[in-house]
Each structure stands twice: as structure tokens, then as C-alpha cells.
Task: structure prediction
Amino acid sequence: ERALTRFQHPSPMRQQDSPHQHDIPQYGAKVQFTNDPDNSPALDAADTKRVQEVLGTLLYYARAIDPTMLPAIGTIATQQSKPTRQTMQAITQLLNCLHRKDDHDQLVSSTLATS
Result:
């Protein structure tokens, strides 16, 4: 919750359950091709700093509390030196997923407190 407040991330319109984009497999294909290279525009220095701050904060959170976000953080971290718009979309999806996890954690803790 503090990370969402720190980065001023609004509540998502739709619930996000996956911390990163799912690559749909091509069933029956002999070869699974990789995704096309990211040709989206590069981010400015302020957005690059934001990407790095979010990753640093969430890496600490993921290692200490919720390791299910580590694959998404690792994938985004490979792009943090030269982030693009697609990197920022991945950060937004990760924060949206964190928002859902925060709501779930509050529900669980309030349920356990009333039991």
C-alpha cells in the first residue's frame, strides 16, 4: 500500500491478476518464435528514474514478502537502462497487480481479525 501511495498509482479500472504479460503459445508449431523487438519510443530521464525506483522498491517487497512477482521484475529489470513505452506499460501492469494483492491482503487480515 505504501509503494502504491509513494508512486501515486491510481486504482485500476479492471482487476489485474497477472504481474506480467502472458505470451500465448503456438500449439502444434514445431518452433516457438520470440516476440518482435520493442520499437516503441524511449522514455525521458524522469520516466527512466521512475522505472528504476519502482523496480528497486518492488524487488525489496518481492524478495521479502511476495516472490510471485520476481519473474516480472526480472524481465522488466533487463530493460531499465533504456526503457521504452512498452516498459512503462509493463510497470503499470505490475503496479495494477500489486494493487489487487494489497486489496486481497487487507481482506484476509480483516477476516482473520474478526474470526
Summary: The chain has a mean pLDDT of 81. Residues 85-114 form the longest helix (30 residues). Helices lie at 2-6, 45-64, 70-77, 85-114.
